[in-house]
TrEMBL record:
Keywords tagged on the record: Cell membrane, Lipoprotein, Membrane
The protein's name in its UniProt record: Membrane-anchored ubiquitin-fold protein
Superkingdom of origin organism: Eukaryota
Record-linked InterPro entries: MUB, Ubiquitin-like_domsf, UBL3-like, UBL3-like_ubiquitin_dom
Domain UBL3-like ubiquitin span(s) in chain numbering: 7-114
Purpose of the protein: May serve as docking site to facilitate the association of other proteins to the plasma membrane.
Length: 116
């Protein structure tokens, strides 16, 4: 394999249609490193940017990518063109507020067993 095949050009598409990148990453780069890159390079003028890696979801070829996966493992033979740029979508999901947490706790199903 050549060095070019061990690297992937990736641009990150934000929900407003703007992009971060493209930037070249080795195939061994973890998805968690990609998320760190997104957080670090998030445009300062955009509101609702991620504050931590935990708030970032990266989607490629319709799949949410797991932190412990590598870029090489996530390649799609149908979508990735050699020498081309792969677009990965970025979704920011802020952690729930205290009010939302309480609401979620109240909505949880509770099961009660009655022994007669």
């Amino acid at each position: 394999m050549s060095g070019a095949q061990n690297r992937l050009e990736i641009k990150f598409r934000l929900t407003d249609g703007s992009d971060i990148g493209p930037k070249s990453f080795p195939a061994a780069t973890s998805i968690s490193t990609l998320k760190e890159t997104v957080v670090a390079q998030w445009p300062k003028e955009k509101e609702n940017g991620p504050k931590t890696v935990k708030e970032v979801k990266i989607i490629s070829a319709g799949r949410i990518l797991e932190n412990n996966s590598t870029v090489g493992e996530c390649r799609s033979p149908l979508c990735d063109v050699p020498g081309g740029v792969t677009t990965m979508h970025v979704v920011v999901q802020s952690p729930p507020s205290d009010k939302e947490k309480k609401s979620l706790q109240l909505k949880q199903n509770k099961c009660v067993c009655v022994i007669l």
